[in-house]
Write a structure and sequence with these properties.
The complex is a heterodimer of chains A (354) and B (234). Chain A has 354 residues and is an all-alpha fold. Chain A has helices at residues 2-15, 17-37, 41-45, 51-78, 87-102, 108-127, 136-154, 159-162, 183-206, 208-218, 220-225, 230-255, 266-279, 285-305, 309-323, 327-349. Chain B contains 10 helices and 10 strands. The chains are: A mainly alpha (354), B alpha/beta (234).
């Protein structure tokens, strides 16, 4: 048994070395930051205020953005569906969980069940038009659906529930996960959720269904010619993406605990697009790297440059897109293949390797 | 000989353009039939119309005794029609093995056919883990044909297999297509008349969206007037 398992474990470790090291670093990060500040491990564990708690908060925001960006990478980067209404998936999860917790006093478990149901309904709402429209037309239809949702949550008629243009305020968060008092717990929950989503996505993309999604992105007609009803595959991708984005939205509500109408706007869809452009479209890992770069850059520049940060931010994004057209992860993968090939050629030339 | 594919007076539009204005052809089972004609005559559109990618507005396509009118393209493909599009249309982001596996219609097709495929295309076995984008033009064409062999297809539609290939590769390709016709029926679109005449037993000439002449290839090769008139070759 052990003999059979260990090669699998070894191959898993070697394939995910970077991810495992990053995970270990993230696990110890709050304690290391605390130690630098002179706080004891116990103080960090007890969620006492300080830099460690602040860093945990920043990291949680990155994890939520990464989950959201992963969901966009699945439909755009992997399946090739350009959607301008993706923020609706996120905002639906954020608003619904906030409303159910605040106005209907539901438990977190029941709230999650409803979030999942609505996420699936949303995916089918986008999916209805799939057999008829594709490309930029699909993008515009989703923009329309997203805009309608944005207008509805900002309207006065539902203002008692959504907070209209002010947003949903003061959502009661279950004590065991309250980020004010149990931030470290929240931090680890967010890490676990991100990891689970990442590995489900990786498994999905490597599965036969995922490979068909990649084929659809490349050329839908060719996929049809192999006998695939591409509609079903696109619906599967949409459902998985919508559920993930909605869960990210719920996490966002629990962490903040307010929901701004901006989360339903076009700008927040563009945020997801920007994150995967920075990290690398269709790479999955790119969503994680992109989310970290996006949030840290935004935070750092705003802290030191104030309002002019947006201008510098924009310039940096343009430079990234110009000089790293495949994103950070995409470019790294291409270059590392070239470096490996070059090293092999050099070793052959030096006759150190056959 | 039984007719496997019967295309009856089809008219196909792309947008507002009337591309096929009456194409008819009968393809006998177990044969190779070449669709000939000048650039833009409507040969590729004929293949796409058979497959339902550009569905005909008039006329009908009967495959293996079944009328394909109104059927969706993926349902038509699932009846047992393999398509090798022009320009070596493989999936560039998938590996050679993934390109082959994705063509499975039933689980295990690839495992069952892999020996036969690698016997026809030994190069592909060596390149199995490489992504499609890293293959040469000839290798991509081999992969495109190999992909159509994974599932049990009764009919193979092959569009311009010799396009842009070196002479030595064209020869290899011709041998492969000849071998395929032992098990499948082949409809071949080919600009290179020399290649088409050596491979096909039957021909159909398409001119400005209409089928204008059809018959046995052995008769066409001696009919210099027809060749000169419709194909521009001496």
């Amino acid at each position: 048994m052990t003999e059979k398992t260990s090669p699998t474990v070894n191959s898993f470790v070697s394939q995910n070395r970077g991810l495992i090291l990053s995970l270990l670093a993230l696990v110890v990060l709050p304690f290391i930051v605390g130690l630098f500040e002179g706080a004891s491990l116990g103080a960090v564990w007890q969620n006492e205020s300080g830099t460690s708690k602040f860093v945990q908060g920043l990291a949680i925001e990155i994890f939520i953005l990464a989950i959201y960006a992963l969901s966009y990478d699945l439909i755009f980067g992997i399946t090739g569906l350009l959607s301008f209404g993706h923020s609706m998936f996120f905002a639906a999860g954020a608003y619904l969980s906030g409303i159910l917790l605040k106005s209907f006093d539901l438990s977190l478990g029941m709230t999650l069940v409803w979030v999942l149901v609505i996420a699936v309904v949303n995916a089918f709402l986008f999916g209805i038009v799939l057999p008829r429209v594709k490309g930029i037309t699909f993008a515009l239809v989703t923009l329309g659906l997203g805009s309608v949702f944005h207008i509805v949550i900002m309207s006065r008629e539902v203002g008692d529930y959504t907070g209209a243009d002010v947003g949903l305020q003061a959502v009661p968060v279950p004590e065991f996960i309250n980020p004010a008092t149990h931030r470290l717990t929240f931090y680890f929950v967010a890490i676990v959720l991100l990891l689970v989503v990442y590995f489900i996505y990786k498994r999905f993309v490597d599965s036969p269904t995922g490979r068909v999604c990649v084929a659809i992105r490349e050329n839908e007609d060719r996929a049809k010619m192999l006998g695939f009803n591409t509609f079903y595959f696109k619906i599967v991708a949409l459902v998985l993406s919508s559920v993930t984005a909605a869960l990210a939205g719920t996490l966002h509500t629990l962490y903040q605990p307010i929901v701004s109408p901006n989360t339903a706007g076009l700008g927040f869809t563009v945020t997801a697009l920007l994150i995967i452009l920075i990290g690398g479209v269709g790479t999955l890992n790119g969503a994680l790297v992109g989310a970290a770069v996006y949030r840290l850059l935004d935070f750092g520049l705003r802290r030191y440059l104030g309002e002019s940060a947006s201008f510098i931010n924009g310039a940096i994004y343009i430079l990234i897109v110009l000089y790293l057209p495949f994103g950070i992860v995409g470019t790294w993968r291409m270059q590392s293949a070239k470096i490996t090939e070059g090293r092999k050629r050099l070793l052959k030339l030096l006759k150190l390797e056959k | 000989m039984d007719t496997l594919l019967d295309v009856q007076e089809i008219h196909t539009f792309i947008g507002q353009y009337h591309i096929l204005e009456g194409v008819s052809l009968g393809v006998p089972q177990g044969s190779i039939t070449a669709l000939l004609g000048r650039n833009g005559a409507g040969k590729t559109t004929t293949l796409k119309s058979i497959l339902g990618l550009t569905a005909p507005r008039q006329g009908k396509v009967v495959f293996d005794g079944r009328d394909l009118s109104g059927m969706r393209s993926f349902d038509i493909a699932a009846l047992g029609i393999g398509y090798v599009p022009e320009h070596r249309a493989i999936f560039r982001d998938l590996s050679v093995e993934e390109n082959l596996k994705i063509a499975e219609r039933e689980k295990g097709d690839y495992t069952r056919k892999s020996d036969m495929i690698f016997d026809l295309f030994p190069d592909l076995k060596r390149l199995i883990t490489l992504s499609g984008a890293n293959l040469s033009g000839g290798q991509q064409q081999m992969l495109a044909i190999a992909r159509a062999l994974v599932a049990d297809n009764k009919l193979l539609l092959i569009d311009e297999p010799s396009e842009g290939l070196a002479p030595v590769l064209i020869e290899q390709m011709m041998k492969v297509i000849s071998r395929l016709s032992v098990e499948s029926t082949v409809v071949l679109v080919e600009q290179n008349f020399l290649v088409a005449s050596q491979l096909a037993e039957y021909f159909v000439i398409i001119e400005e969206g209409k089928s204008v002449k059809s018959g046995m290839m052995k008769d066409l090769v001696n009919d210099h007037e027809t060749i000169h008139r419709y194909l521009g070759a001496a």
